[in-house]
């Protein structure tokens, strides 16, 4: 660590050497009423207009009152001036450079010291509609890449002094800003302390996305099927989870917030549930659970029934399946594996390709290739129907898309090699893995396992607003005793 130099020339040379004569470092040196001052900022991070209006113009007026004393001018700037919202005094050159990288303009007054002014003016993406969590009646705002904008989206929805917004940093090279959001009095203090400790101890050089931070925040080994933290790009979801006593992490440069702890049932709750009639909510949540079952287990069950348990089918259906499979060169098990892998290939291509040609990929994959494969006898028609239904069902629960893809292949292999015995064995392993997962003492499968009577009904039934207002339930009530 290098302390702030005493002279303007020394300060200017050292800050340039520290940044390696960086091309985006803007510096200016001037004498105001006999006091030598240096202004430094990073191009594209600090606004030149704000720097002139909020720093340089008031500085020139205050210099006349300083009467040639650098110490008095610095005291006026830091103690009496109120022309910027955020003024900090870095103690070292490293602290000063870190502030400049965050959009601060650095002012050095010879004989006084250094002060940093928050005049951020970097380009950022505007607040837009969430891309992966659409809704009908809820908010249409989603997080963007600028952490200050994301913090304001949360604060705008939680106008309470109990909301705590604590800024942390992670990444030895990137020094990424991370905002920890929680409600004082509702969030567990031990969970908040643990999250702070884990963020500070992240061993990565760069933290560029929320996904890279997630393994360092989990208590387990991170090799399990389900994650201890949920991700969302909706500020209203973050506020709803914070109100339940959870904590959220906003990462600068990422439009996704991390929520701790995560529950399995959260994947089947949407923002529209709060705006819909209870009877419709029950129906939709039941549909989502059925869709998850179809997306994960249906192809494997189909292979198991056709190969090992044909007695479960009616005679007419069995004859139709036999006739369709007779014209294909591969076994049903191999066919299902091939078409499932092709489905994942087309999904990945649709995601990675430019949007202008993304629709062409889906048309070519879903219509042209599928129709040609059936007509050429490579795959059977019933198999194509099942895979299409599976693909549609997997899009109902986008937050479990990764788990669905992995489990689908596992169930196909289990059903193709051991029939229902394999399906039952895989189901037991998946249930064991889910029940063994917990985050900060909250079981992942709560409130069903372990069973909590008051909260279990919320899995399928939406609690009435009046009842929810009376109970004020928090996540710590689900903690395993």
Count of separate structural domains: 3
Low-confidence segments, given as residue ranges, are none
- Beta-strand percentage? 5-15%
Structural class comes to alpha+beta
pLDDT averaged over residues: 86
Number of helices: 16
What share of the residues lie within helices? 40-55%
The sequence of SSEs as H and E is HEEHHEHEEHEEHHEHEEHHHHHHEEHH
Strand order of the largest sheet: 1-2-4-5-3
Number of strands: 12
Major sheet characteristics: 5 strands, antiparallel
Radius of gyration: 29 Å
In whole angstroms, the N-to-C terminal distance is: 48 Å
What global shape is seen? elongated
What does this structure look like?
This protein has 481 residues and is of the alpha+beta class. It folds into three domains: 111 residues, no CATH class; 116 residues, no CATH class; 163 residues, no CATH class. Helix content is 49%, strand content 13%. The longest helix has 36 residues. The protein is elongated, with a radius of gyration of 29 Å. The model has no long low-confidence stretch (mean pLDDT 86).
Give a short summary of the structure.
With 481 residues, the protein is an alpha+beta fold.
Helix-strand blueprint:
Layout: H1 8-18, E1 25-32, E2 35-42, H2 48-66, H3 70-80, E3 87-88, H4 93-101, E4 104-109, E5 113-118, H5 147-157, E6 163-170, E7 176-183, H6 189-200, H7 210-217, E8 230-232, H8 235-243, E9 247-251, E10 257-260, H9 278-308, H10 315-326, H11 332-352, H12 355-375, H13 381-394, H14 401-436, E11 438-439, E12 442-443, H15 453-456, H16 465-471
Antiparallel strand pairs: 1-2, 2-4, 3-5, 4-5, 6-7, 7-9, 8-10, 9-10, 11-12
């Amino acid at each position: 660590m290098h302390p702030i130099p005493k002279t303007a020339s020394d300060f200017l040379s050292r800050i340039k050497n520290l940044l390696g004569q960086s091309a985006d470092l803007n510096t200016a040196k001037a004498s105001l009423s006999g006091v030598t001052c240096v202004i430094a900022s990073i191009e594209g991070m600090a606004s030149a207009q704000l720097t002139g209006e909020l720093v340089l113009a008031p500085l020139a007026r205050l210099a006349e009152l300083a009467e040639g004393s650098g110490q008095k001018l610095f005291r006026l700037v830091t103690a009496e001036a109120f022309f910027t919202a955020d003024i900090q005094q870095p103690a070292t050159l490293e602290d000063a450079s870190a502030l400049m990288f965050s959009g601060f303009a650095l002012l050095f007054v010879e004989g006084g010291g250094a002060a940093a002014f928050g005049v951020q003016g970097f380009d950022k993406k505007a607040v837009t509609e969430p891309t992966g969590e659409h809704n009908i009646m809820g908010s249409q705002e989603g997080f963007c890449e600028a952490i200050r904008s994301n913090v304001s989206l949360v604060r705008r929805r939680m106008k309470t002094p109990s909301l705590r917004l604590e800024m942390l940093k992670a990444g030895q090279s990137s020094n990424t800003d991370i905002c920890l959001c929680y409600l004082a009095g509702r969030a567990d203090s031990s969970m908040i302390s643990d999250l702070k400790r884990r963020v500070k101890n992240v061993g990565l050089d760069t933290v560029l996305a929320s996904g890279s931070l997630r393994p360092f925040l989990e208590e387990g080994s991170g090799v399990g099927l389900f994650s201890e933290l949920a991700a969302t790009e909706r500020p209203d979801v973050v506020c709803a989870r914070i109100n339940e006593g959870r904590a959220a992490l906003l990462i600068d440069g990422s439009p996704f917030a991390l929520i701790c702890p995560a529950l399995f049932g959260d994947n089947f709750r949407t923002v529209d549930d709060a705006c819909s009639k209870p009877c419709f909510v029950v129906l939709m949540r039941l549909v989502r659970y059925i869709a998850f079952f179809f997306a994960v287990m249906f192809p494997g069950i189909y292979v198991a029934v056709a190969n090992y348990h044909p007695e479960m089918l009616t005679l007419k259906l069995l004859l139709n399946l036999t006739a369709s499979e007779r014209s294909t060169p591969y076994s049903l098990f191999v066919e299902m594996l091939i078409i499932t892998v092709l489905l994942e290939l087309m999904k990945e291509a649709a995601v990675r390709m430019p949007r202008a040609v993304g629709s062409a990929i889906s048309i070519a994959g879903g219509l042209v290739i599928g129709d040609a494969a059936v007509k050429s006898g490579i795959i059977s028609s019933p198999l194509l129907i099942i895979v299409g239904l599976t693909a549609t069902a997997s899009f109902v629960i986008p937050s479990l898309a990764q788990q669905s893809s992995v489990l689908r292949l596992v169930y196909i292999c289990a059903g193709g090699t051991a029939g229902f015995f394999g399906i039952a064995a895989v189901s037991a392993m998946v249930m064991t893995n889910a029940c063994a997962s917990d985050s900060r003492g909250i079981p992942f499968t709560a409130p069903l396992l372990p069973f909590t009577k008051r909260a279990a009904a919320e899995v399928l039934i939406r609690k009435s607003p009046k009842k929810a207002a009376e109970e004020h339930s928090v996540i710590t009530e689900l903690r395993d005793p």
